[in-house]
Specification:
Helix content is 0%, strand content 81%. It is mainly β. Strands 1-2-3-4 form a four-stranded antiparallel β-sheet, with no helix packed on it.
């Protein structure tokens, strides 16, 4: 995970590995994500989140 702060805005990027069962089928996958946060009233608030599945090798 990488965090970049630009004044009152932060961008967080990284890869999340998830696994679980949905409707009886087990699955594992990696998701590349990006979140944009803005500091409002002294706290960070998420304003945009995006995730894209990473192709298995």
């Amino acid at each position: 995970m990488k965090v970049s702060i630009y004044g009152e805005t932060a961008i967080v990027t990284g890869v999340e590995n998830v696994k679980g069962t949905y409707r009886g089928a087990y699955s594992e996958m990696a998701i590349r994500f990006m979140n944009v946060l803005v500091r409002r009233d002294g706290r960070w608030q998420l304003v945009l989140g995006q995730g894209t599945p990473v192709q298995a090798k």
